[in-house]
Amino acid sequence: MTRVTDHGGGVRSIRVPIPDNPLGHTVVHLLDTDRGPVLIDTGWDDPSSWRTLTEGLHACGTSATEIHGVVVTHHHPDHHGLSGRIREESGAWIAMHAADAAVVRRTREAEPDLWLGYLTDKLERAGAPEAHLTPLRAARAAGGGRLPGLHAALPDREIVPGELLDLAGRRLRAVWTPGHTPGHVCLHLEEEHPARRPGHGRLFSGDHLLPGITPHIGLYEDPDDDTVTDPLGDYLDSLERVGRLGVAEVLPAHQHAFTGAVDRVRELLAHHEERLAGLLRLLSRPLTPWQVAERMVWNRPWADIPYGSRTIAVSEAESHLRRLAKLGRAREVPGGPPARYEAV
Fold first, then answer.
1. Which residues contact 55 (CB under 8 A, 6 or more apart)?
2. pLDDT at 149
3. Closest to 324 in 3D by CA, of 297, 343, 298
């Protein structure tokens, strides 16, 4: 399978594998600049991923030692994982939005036990059954394990929304698109499309806008912050902001490049509105977030969803419940824990 694609105009991509993950790979983009090549995302911190990335760079006529900078769309380990390794090889700078840089900093400073305890308590409040909580309690009692992101590289440059990044010879503007993470950014390449397709340049969309799947929109996780956020509301607002750009082509971090960004934005907005309406029907009687997740439509039956993915699904259910509550269409029923929600 070809792992390197030339998109024209000094933009290429490398498909970097994600170990044991149904997504399969992260599409890492390589952007030529007058000061040297710049990576947009890097892939998961794994030997096979590193090998694929370095082989892809070689196929593009460069190497890890020649990378000038790394622009990270968001802090998740399949995007930011190899940034530190790139910096060790080349001295490259690493840029990230301040909100996600803060997540990286807090995660590095925390012990695994803190995160395991936070996750256990959160799932308990969401109504998770004891069978789901037992492995977390056991891992915490054993002193924790190696959790993704605990040793991620600290970025040394800040991506400022609305501003052009300091890339010699290129016009790459940051578009803040929170929802998938609090500091997710898309990157608008404000240059004529190399194939002269109609529209305003190209968009590196990270996980925000994907051609065939919807990104995970769960709660923003932070053991030290109890702010009641609205990630789904953030995401829907961000979608509309991206739709107004009118780009000629989207270069996402998963799946493949595509056109028709405005149509895809409309599809995603409609999908989430339909999902919210479906949840309201479920909430004709009080349900915990876990019970809501069990009844939501996923890409497979709940019984076939693996352990870790169930935790992610519950977080997504909670983000939809938060949205309904903020809109005044649902409310949390007094008397928890566990939390229970009902339609208003």
1. 3
2. 61
3. 343
* pLDDT tens per residue across span 308-343: 999 999 999 999 999 999 999 999 999 989 999 999
CB neighbour class for 201 (10 Å; exposed up to 12, middle 13-18, buried from 19)? buried
Helix, strand counts (H, E) of the chain: 10, 13
Query: What confidence score (pLDDT) does residue 114 get?
Result: 83
In 3D space, the residue among 53, 52, 49 whose CA is nearest the CA of residue 67 turns out to be: 53
120-138: b (≥16 Cβ within 10 Å) or e: bebbbbbbbeeebeeebee
What pLDDT does residue 139 have?
Answer: 86
Per the structure block, which two tokens stand in for 313?
A: 């699904």
DSSP-derived pairing of the beta strands 11-17 and 4-6:
antiparallel
Contacts of 54 (CB under 8 A, 6+ apart): 63, 64
Where does the pLDDT of residue 53 fall: very low under 50, low under 70, confident under 90, or very high at 90 and above? very high
Of 295, 304, 285, nearest to 343 by C-alpha is: 285
Cis amide leading into 337 (omega within 30)? yes
Give the whole-angstrom CA distance, residue 196 versus residue 188: 16
CA dihedral 213, 190, 44, 34 (to 10 degrees): 160
- SS3 at position 11: strand
Q: Which residue has the tokens 């051609």?
A: 211
Contacts of 253 (CB under 8 A, 6+ apart): 26, 27, 28, 41, 73, 79, 204, 205, 206, 207
- Which two tokens mark 111? 């012990």
- The mean per-residue pLDDT over the stretch 88-92 comes to 98
Q: What angle do CA 334, 339, 344 make, to 5 degrees?
A: 60
Q: Which two tokens stand for residue 293?
A: 């997740």
Question: What does pTM read for this prediction?
Answer: 0.94
Which are the contacts of 149, defined by CB distance < 8 A and separation ≥ 6? Answer: 75, 76, 77, 80, 104, 107
Cβ neighbours of residue 120 closer than 8 Å, sequence gap 6 or more: 133, 136, 137, 140
